[in-house]
Amino acid sequence: MAFTRLATIVSLALGAITVNAGLVRRVTCANGKTTTNAVCCPLFDAVDFLQTNLFDGSECGEEAHSALRLTFHDAIGFSIHGGKGGGADGSILAFNSTELQFHANGGIDDIIAGQFPVFQTLSQQIGISPGDFVHLAGAVGTANCPGAPRLEFMFGRPPPVAPAPDLTIPEPTDNVTSILARFADAGFSPEEAIALLSSHTIAAADVVDTTIPGTPFDSTVGTFDSQVFLEVLLKGTLFPGNGSQPGEVLSPIAGEMRLQSDFVLSQDPRTACFWQAMVNNQERMTTQFKAAMAKLQTLGQNTKNLVDCSDVVPVPASFAGPITFPASFSMADVQIACPQEAFPMLATVAGPAPTVAPVPGS
Ligand code: HEM
């Protein structure tokens, strides 16, 4: 008791109360929320503002998915060898008139239009930078999806100085060698690249086939589960919209789109076992995705100058699992590309083959 009292130092900092109990330092903000650093306090209200004004009240919908995609398209223009973009700096928001011209940024205009007024309000209220805004929105949007890991959020990115250069974002028409080369140039291993592609479990396409906007990549687009890693391996039989489009390959399920890039990565010897290992392994997928996202969302930043404000990111709902074969599918439909590892045993949903519905609002 006496030890607890001695070890507890209470001080006032920036209108917040700092409690230093043993090694764990906590700050109670004016709004009653607790965090590790008083500079994070204004972000709690910013998160509430984002949920109301961008994410339709904490939905794992179109805006949440696109906010995650935006973090990638903002950050990946970076090179560990220098000479390319500023990384996770918000340049895609601040210099959107340049970066939206890039072919790979097709479909990004909607989320920029949605985020820009929200960014302007928060910039006036708390001085948030474009980089912090883009990467906070990505973490919050992802947290709205059940099963997702709680992504880290590092606070304090300076304003971006220039747009990223064109031709630094992988395209679905790219081959495995060039995709992995681009990821490697930005500092990611093939395993980390596959980990980042867990994002396609909460993803849909608007512009690959413009006749069918909002066509999901898996049958559970509102849940951050490993279903996409399973469904990309199922034998493809159909195109969901207006025939074959560039970057699209045969899909196994009506209403579902398969990206060529996802498929070739699932089949290539350099990545097939990383892909297959994600199937029905929620723990591996979320752990690896969280680690790779922490790296992506601080590319080009000096993390010594950033404050860890991960406490402000909402805690996502969990996903119980296991995943299942969609109705009418079984092990016989799996295009195994990693025969040296056992494939998980999965049950099949009862009933006729499904048709996947588009994501509303796309
Ligand atoms: C090889 C690398 C990648 C390629 C070729 C690729 C390609 C694409 C394409 C073509 C779309 C559909 C765009 C549209 O038609 O609207 C898409 C959507 C998406 N991508 Fe990727 N992607 C890659 C990696 C990533 C990574 C690393 C992330 C995040 C960490 C990501 C997150 C998303 C999300 C969340 C969506 C859905 C957006 C929405 O539903 O509005 N992608 N991706």
UniProtKB/TrEMBL annotation:
The active site is at 73 (proton acceptor). Ca(2+) 2 binds at residues 201, 218, 220, 225. Ca(2+) 1 binds at residues 74, 87, 89, 91. InterPro entries: Ccp1-like, Haem_peroxidase, Haem_peroxidase_sf, Ligninase, Ligninase_C, Peroxidases_AS, Peroxidases_heam-ligand_BS. It is found in: Secreted. Residues 1-21 form the signal peptide. GO terms for molecular function: heme binding; metal ion binding; peroxidase activity. It holds the Pfam family Peroxidase_ext. The keyword Cell inner membrane does not apply. GO terms for biological process: cellular response to oxidative stress; hydrogen peroxide catabolic process; response to reactive oxygen species. Heme b binds at residue 200. Keywords: Calcium, Disulfide bond, Glycoprotein, Heme, Hydrogen peroxide, Iron, Metal-binding, Oxidoreductase, Peroxidase, Secreted, Signal. Residues 64-313 form the Plant heme peroxidase family profile domain. One of its GO terms (cellular component) is extracellular region. The keyword RNA-binding does not apply. Its cofactor is Ca(2+); heme b. Its EC number is 1.11.1.-. Belongs to the peroxidase family. Ligninase subfamily. PANTHER family: CATALASE-PEROXIDASE, THYLAKOID LUMENAL 29 KDA PROTEIN, CHLOROPLASTIC-RELATED. This is Peroxidase. It comes from Pholiota conissans.
